[in-house]
Design goal:
By secondary structure, the protein is α+β, with helices and mostly antiparallel strands. It has 7 helices and 10 strands. The protein folds into 2 domains: 135 residues, N-terminal domain of MutM-like DNA repair proteins (Alpha-Beta Barrel), CATH 3.20.190; 126 residues, Helicase, Ruva Protein, domain 3. 23% of the residues lie in helices and 23% in strands. The radius of gyration is 20 Å and the shape is elongated. It binds a DNA duplex (16 and 16 nucleotides) through helix 6.
Length: 288
Amino acid sequence: MPELPEVETVRRTLAPLVGKVIASSWGSGKPLHMNRPVPYEAIARYAVTTTIRAIRRHGKYLLLDLAARRGPSQVLLVHLGMTGRLRIHAVGEPRGVHTHLVLGLREPSKRKIRHELRYTDIRRFGQLDLVTAGAEAAHPALRVLGRDPLVEPLDGSFIHSHARQSGQAIKSFLLNQRIISGLGNIYASEALWLARIRPTLRARKLSRPRAALLAEAVTQVLHHALTHGGTSLKDFVAADGAQGSHSDYLQVYGRGGEPCRRNTCKGTIRRTVIQGRATFHCPKCQER
DNA sequence: AGACAAACCTGTCTGC
DNA sequence: TGCAGACAGGTTTGTC
């Protein structure tokens, strides 16, 4: 579900949790991503009594920095997969069936737990892990991540130098988290439409000027989505429960059979499949 | 190397 | 109404 703008929206709405103390932990015991076990017990053991110091993001991963009173600090790693949600609830709000982690939160100066941070995930494609602080960059999931466009802006030469080494379709190239981290299936189609590039174009055929256009388009699409709080097609909500409004602004994604929105272009948006993922483009203005 | 399918799951929608 | 099948924002794994 969530791509960079959605995950960043969650991160921003989680900001009020910085400074709170984790006072309790409950886990569902169920495996998540790839049916792999989640260290629920370690989270309960190490995260309880820690203070949330910061909430960071790299690509589609969220990192909660947890400072322990004594002993090493920890980092809670969260990936939302397709249907993962991280939300702040008042204690006592009914807990949904697909809840997998509940962290009770209190003010540092008080004893009573008033809020809970809950992770729910219907399809269980998300990830939860606990890493010793300082070692998170070596975590298998984070180690391989490429450039985060919000942390380090993209430019034409970055795209061009990587694209020339890839024989993949440009859309598959954009989805490769090892190159650019955070771009997903919606915004890959959107960025290619904005840059007028056909999704099946071989990455290595991308000229330098068009690489610059693409870098610009990716940046613009991500920032634009972020200003709308992300795209809610179905499941996505921010940590405060708010839905993103960016689905109203999508130019191609999910618009198969509908007219192209580019001025003067009378094309019809086509839905195709590339590497098993739905892909949308306008055959008329994204030719070449 | 890269394309594809399947795998991990549940829910929703479509068509018969 | 019921049921089968397709499809869904992600990532990994195996096969051709």
